[in-house]
Specification:
Layout (H helix, E strand, L loop, with lengths): L4 E2 L2 E3 L6 E2 L19 H28 L3 H7 L9 H19 L8 H5 L10 H15 L3 H18 L4 H12 L6 H37 L6 H25 L3 H31 L3
Antiparallel strand pairs: 1-2, 2-3
Helix pairs in contact: 2-8, 3-8, 5-10, 6-10, 7-8, 7-10, 8-9, 9-10
């Protein structure tokens, strides 16, 4: 049924307000017309909605990658219509990262049990000795062998790694808060920056692994220099993160170059400990929930 009108005035079916324009001034509802109730109208509305959402999505991801700090600054200044909200950007980047990781078979954040507890005589993580002790006690308590448990753990850890990626956000927010405590809204700014930084962190991993990481792995294997892959790839990632965080801090906080450089250096130096801490949290959570 078409919304009743008197001349150009109509009653909004959503909030009941009286409106005289194409959109309700109280809630933004669009005036219903005869065309909206046809099959063609339904189809056009669906296409319009799809491209509107996708346009904001692609604009948000492009800006996140190529214009560090712009999303954060825009959100804090109230320019929010053109982009996805910070947590939405984080969720999209999270999904993209883990989809690409699953498709290509690489593991950066969701390590298998063997990687966590290490091999005999050669720990794969800094915390592997502690992780092995926890795993041994857990297996003894549950009466399972490590071979039987590994498959269960490896399946669950991939799911948990997606859900727990958000635990990196408070760590980077704390770093930003400590480095730039005099921002206008220090806590809010730090959290929004951190959501965008972790989103960039995940998205860049998803892009760089197939473009640089995997080809580099093949080349180094061919020349029997596989041990160089981790330092070379990590150095490339950290160079990009340094550029991004420096540019973002300058745009968001407007600090001096020296202050901005210190902030960027703090974030980059802390990235490895943050990732290691995240991996350990995922390990412990998975160990005691499976």
């Amino acid at each position: 049924m078409v919304t009743p009108t008197i001349n150009d005035v109509w009653i909004c079916p959503t909030c009941g307000a009286t409106a005289a324009n194409a959109y309700c001034g109280a809630c933004g509802e669009k005036r219903l017309g005869h065309h909206d109730l046809t099959l063609l109208g339904i189809f056009e509305h669906a296409v319009e909605s799809l491209f509107h959402v996708d346009g904001r999505l692609f604009r948000s991801l492009r800006t996140l990658l190529l214009s560090p700090g712009t999303l954060t600054a825009a959100y804090l200044r109230g320019r929010r219509k053109a982009y996805f909200a910070p947590f939405q950007v984080f969720l999209v980047a999270n999904v993209i990262f883990f989809v690409v990781q699953s498709a290509l078979g690489f593991q950066t954040l969701s390590n298998d049990l063997a990687s966590h507890i290490g091999n005999a005589g050669a720990a794969n993580q800094f915390y592997s000795a502690t992780a092995r002790g926890l795993a041994d006690h857990r297996l003894a308590d549950t009466g399972r062998t490590i071979d039987a448990y590994s498959e269960v753990f490896n399946h669950a850890v991939r799911i948990n790694a997606k859900a727990l990626a958000v635990v990196m956000v408070p760590a980077y927010a704390l770093l930003a808060l400590i480095t730039f405590p005099r921002a206008r809204h220090p806590l809010l700014t730090a959290v929004v920056f951190s959501l965008h930084f972790v989103a960039f962190f995940l998205l860049m991993q998803a892009l760089m692994m197939p473009i640089i990481g995997m080809p580099l792995n093949w080349i180094l294997r061919a020349v029997a220099a596989r041990r160089l892959w981790d330092p070379v790839y990590t150095l490339a990632l950290e160079a990009i993160w340094l550029w991004w965080s420096y540019s973002a801090f300058q745009r968001v906080y407007g600090a001096s170059r020296v202050h901005t450089g210190i902030g960027a250096a703090v974030v980059i130096l802390a990235s490895i400990p943050v990732v290691i801490g995240y991996r350990f949290i995922v390990f412990v959570f998975t160990l005691y929930t499976t």
